[in-house]
Amino acid sequence: MKTHRIIIDTDPGFDDMVSILLAFASPELELLGICAVAGNVPLEDTARNALRVCELAGRTDVPVFMGCAGPLLRDQVFGKYANSGGLGGDLLPEPALRCAEGHAVDHIVKAARDAAARGETITICAHAPLTNVAMACLMGGEEFVRGVERIIIMGGAFEALGNRVPWAEFNVYADPHAAAVVFASKIPVTLFPLDATFQGLLTPERLDRIRAVSGRVGEVMEKLLKIYDRNDVARYGQEGGPLHDPMVPAFLLRPELFETVPAWVGVETANPESAGHTYCDFFGKLGRKPNCDVVRRVDSDGFFALVTERLAAYGPTQRGETQ
User: Fold this and answer.
1) Pick the catalytic residue: 4, 127, 244, 277?
2) pLDDT one-digit tens code per residue, 134-155
3) Residue 244 annotated in active site
4) Tens digit of pLDDT for each residue in 61-79?
5) DSSP alpha helix (H) spans, 118-232
């Protein structure tokens, strides 16, 4: 079994919560830290939410770092549910854990440089605005590049268009300049755009299966989905909503579930009326070397089977207790 040493960069968020829980429940993933960034909600709330997820999972051993409080250049925007704090009031426990000392960007850079010095690498799992990751790319130098095997990103949209605004996916829209920096880095990138994540709908039946095996975690998921209704039958063609962010760690666990193609991806940064729009040269029309492996197809049933299997680690049948 290959072990991947990872850092999760995040702005929890329902999907982020499930992604972190999936990583915790997967022995193939050694989580070196969780880095919070402003995005769905302000930085203080994303950090607090990350700590609350750690408490829910019983994983207070993993450090949480506070990162960038705003985008590189654009005016700040938050997610749809910013006014509710992003994770459902008091559904998750209040954290006894506090954030680790130091800045998230410094932690990312140091982890990569330390890995490079040992002849090893880390993987950055990013499902938030890319401000922290971009700053690490700008500050880290060649040692940083050598120490990062891959950056796996949930972000962007092509045929699927946008979510927060019609022309852009939220993570890129919230900091398009940061996304441009990361796409231009020398580090391999795997990109999960909305075109891919829309293929993985958390239907009521799939939620029921998760809820049946995952104890308190499934209960929290069910209650959160009642607060943050993701249904859009007109858009998705059926009941349910996308489970975007957990596809990022799932790619490391079961890469065969995802079909990727190499392509060049760009980001609109100059025009404020279309900032964050991503565009992709799938057919080599520009003659540019691909800068991303773009996920085009998802084995949805396989993905949810993996999520259900791993989240069962939080359930009473595995732990011999009720929750």
Assistant:
1) 244
2) 999 999 999 999 999 999 999 9
3) yes
4) 999 999 999 999 999 999 8
5) 131-147, 170-174, 176-183, 194-197, 204-213, 215-227
